[in-house]
Write a structure and sequence with these properties.
With about 325 residues, this protein is mainly alpha-helical. It folds into three domains: about 130 residues, no CATH class; about 160 residues, no CATH class; about 30 residues. Helices cover about 70% and strands about 0% of the residues. The longest helix is centred in the middle third of the chain and has 38 residues. The radius of gyration is 29 Å and the shape is flat.
Amino acid sequence: MAYSTTIILLLVALRVATGWYFFESGRSKNLDRDFSSAGFLSQAKGPLAGLFKAPLPDHHDFALTMEVPLEERPKAHPPGSDLWKTEAERPYEAWLESIMIDFGRTKERIATHYSFDDAQDHQGRRIFAYHEGRLRDYLADNSEDLSSYRHELGRLFSWQQAETSEGVPFEAERIATKQKELAAQAATFKAGVAAIEQEFRAELAELATSGQRAERGRATAEGSSLLAGFDRFITVTHFLIGACLVVGFLTRIAAFGGGLFLLLVIVSQPPWVVGYSAIGYQIEMMLICLLLMATGAGRWCGLDYFVRKICKGCCCCSKSASKQNSKNQTLNPA
């Protein structure tokens, strides 16, 4: 199909602008040492939310232990009993147990990594006990907030189950506001525990001698490799997609990759789910990528022009050689 000069210029401009958008996105992610896709993944909604949230750290089973609503009803256990205290005074008990199990595993893993001797193991147990006390104090100080958080989860759940939650703008807005509020509270609790955990890891690592560090290297944190790998994948693919589109190299493949990424962003926030985030510009960008892929915009003012020439030449040579072989076989039958 022949295009006018104006359309060709516009397609080239779209290709370069879209490529620069992806390239700058990859560059900014690479320069930002605090970049993490955790925020984007954690806000995923809809039937595929579990798939998007799979790379996220579980924060010591926070979802299983704390994202469980507390019912607004009289306590079933006698006041003062252990079960009553657990339900009324320590709504964080299950989370605390999970954290301490993980802390114990961290202590053993670091001790094994550096081959601690008996004296170092003894110091490690003292560090463990100290930070266990800090953790218990932190959760006890925030007990009321944690209890309120779980009660508010129950309210949110009842709103979402109500028949009026779908199709009513006010209800949808209220649910979205409550979800953001609870997400911010959960992030605060997780950050407090993470700060204690970071100091715990650092103090255990300091027990290693210079010789142990030189021989064994640094003990890496467990459970963060999947998210870190996903972050690197996003950064590198943005770089490659952007660079290819800017110079017009393998434009169809690059545009398809860009469109696929934007489609995943759109799928993570399906508009029929209550509380979804606006994704207008991603839809427009995805359509632009599909347009660039369909037109092969790299053949104008791009390296794909030369790629097409080379491929065409190779195909022509191959066809000529095939025809010559067929001719020779006809003239000289076996």
